[in-house]
Amino acid sequence: MDRQTPPDGDTPRTQGTGSHGGSDGLLEGLPPEIRQAIIQPRDPAPPPEGARGVPEHVGGRPPSYPPRPLALPAVREWDPLAALVPDTVVDGAELGPLTVRAVSVRGDAHRWRGECRQDALGVAQLGPASGAGPAGGAGTDGLLLLAVADGVGSAPLSHRGAHTTVGCVGRQLDALAEDLTAALRAEDAGRFLDLADRAVAAAAAELRASADGPPSAYATTFRALLVPLDPAVRVRGFLAVGDGGLFLLRDRGWWNLEHPGTANAGVIDTGTAALPDAYEHVRAHLLEPSEPGDVLVLCTDGFSGPLAGDKDFREHVAEQWGHTAGVPQPSDFLWHAQTRLKSYDDDRTVICLWEGIQ
User: Which helix (H) or strand (E) holds 302?
Assistant: First the structure.
């Protein structure tokens, strides 16, 4: 088997002037003023002062549950898959001016009762790829998919529904990637809605057909962002079925992008729509063009609940992820995402997209 040269042995790639760093070729050919607007220099996040230890908490008393994995589901129980779902998943990517951090963590209540994580996440590239690895670049005709799913707690197989739905919808969106990219380039909201609805409907049908029992046993919410990899396209597409959150962090202020008239994230969504059998139509729309320094936050209600419901929690997270804080390393992002607040003990899945910052 061929062995690849380790990163330390690679021939250094040419980087742009100043402190912007390389962009994997995605910005080549753009006028200098556009390049300057897309990528903003950022000082690296300072290293932690010591061992992270127990995640921080806001508010008064800390939550009662211990903040660490405890009991495990047994393989010999009625659903072996539940025992094999990991407690925690951390993911991420850097694609030109886009930086992603993602985490899904089993909730404190599930850890205490020995139940599996019912949330799922997906970070993937859709459409054509121009190469593998940093040297090959990600291409500019593809899309970045950021997806989260939250299995409905009362549905016994919702963890299967959540993980399967992320994969099914991802495949369906990939089949429509070229058309979706064209709709985003043209800022055609109607066309984007039609395509998103088609993809989710096909995924719901696929999940119903594969179910071993009643489809309601697999009930899960789903939401996703579709982000063009062409840095000249600043519009992003959002689609969702059921509850959760989509927020914008800009200059340490929060905006709820599912309720555009509401500042500071102060709305809790109590929608009950779910895939696959309670699905009627997808909610989908285009977001306003992004600005350098924006942070888009896509999450399940385990994170949107405290974010929408507690001012101290919002301010604490803004301090960690805001424009001047530096993009955290994946392990630090995991620690930040576990910031605790009493009475919020559900699974927590959150994906952040830092716009135009490296």
Answer: helix 301-309
The token duo for 107 is 């909730």
CA nearest to 63, candidates 288, 273, 293, 340 = 340
List, for the chain, all residue ranges whose pLDDT scores fall below the cut of 70.
1-51, 129-139, 260-272, 323-325, 357-358
Q: Half-sphere exposure of 78 toward its Cβ, with a 13 Å CA cutoff?
A: 3
DSSP states of 48-103 as a string? PSS---SPPB-SSSPPSS-SS------TTSS-HHHHHS-SEEEEEEEETTEEEEEE
Identify the residue whose tokens are 């660490």: 68
pLDDT of residue 123: 98
Q: What is the pLDDT of residues 78-98, one digit of tens each?
A: 788 889 999 999 999 999 999
Residues of 244-271 as b/e, b for ≥16 C-beta within 10 angstroms?
bbbbbbbebebbbbbeeeeeebeeebee
Return the structure tokens found at 38.
């897309």
CA distances from 98 to 39, 129, 183, 343, 353 (A): 9, 16, 20, 34, 7
232 Cβ neighbours under 8 A, 6+ residues apart: 30, 34
Token digits of residue 165: 């739905």
Sorted by where each starts, the structural domains of the chain and their CATH numbers stand as 65-129+138-274+287-355 (3.60.40.10)
- pTM of structure: 0.83
User: Rounded to an integer, what distance in angstroms lies between the CA atom of residue 331 and that of residue 149?
Assistant: 22
Distance CA 161, CA 176 (A): 22
Which residue bears the tokens 């405890």?
Answer: 70
Closest by alpha carbon to 318, among 338, 295, 290?
295
- Torsion angle of alpha carbons 316, 326, 129, 17, nearest 10°? 160
